[in-house]
Amino acid sequence: MPSASDASSGSSLSSTSSQASETTAFERWRKQAMLITGLGVTEEERLDALQQLNLQRCEKMKKDLMDSSPIVVFMLKHLRLSGCQVPENNIFCGACEVKPVAGGGVVAHAGSFIPEPGAVKLCAGHFFNKKHMEHTIAHELTHLYDQCKFKVDWSNLRHHACSEIRANNLSGDCRYTRELRRGIVSFTKQHQACVRRRAITSVSANPACPSEAMAEKVVNEVWESCFNDTRPFDEIY
């Protein structure tokens, strides 16, 4: 049977543990407040902590989507059926540049496809919600699907244009709500206009593309067949 001194000791330990827990919680709160306000920390420390937080949130959202998003799960399944395995770490979160544009403002890309080794980079901190990330993953996985199934040569502008048309068409990137968030409102052929615009922008950034005019020309040349090619979907998602 425990003695009175044992009971007293146990009570003391419990009290000490509770105080330590409260202190730890307070320290976490204090550190978070310092990072948010910038008081007591350097700008470098604040930005580094923010980046780490963004990476953690990004990885959590990514895992949730890979496990439960209908379109992401569907794309991963059809990649496997096409002979392309996509390990979880081939879809990864990382820091991405925010590029200034002429006339003010910035361009913050949400993700990118890396042909070798067939990976998708998600830009931590550049997503406004989980649906945005879902569309981005679906977009980049469409590029991976095209590379796997159709042996895309990314230096061939026609190949690149076709994959960009398909990725923007099928991923959800050009839904009406996404265009509204971009500040673009159209009541006629909004979806097609978005797909075309975004495809031209992407092809223009290809090092093999000499001009935006050439990008537009190539997109127009492959438009009909590529816009109507919804594989592996039966129809536009």
Automatic annotation (TrEMBL):
EC number: 3.4.24.-
Membrane protein topology class: Peripheral membrane protein
Superkingdom of the organism of origin: Eukaryota
GO CC field: mitochondrial inner membrane
Protein function: Has a dual role in the assembly of mitochondrial ATPase.
Annotated family: Belongs to the peptidase M76 family.
Name this polypeptide is given: Mitochondrial inner membrane protease ATP23
Species whose genome carries this gene: Marasmius oreades (fairy-ring Marasmius)
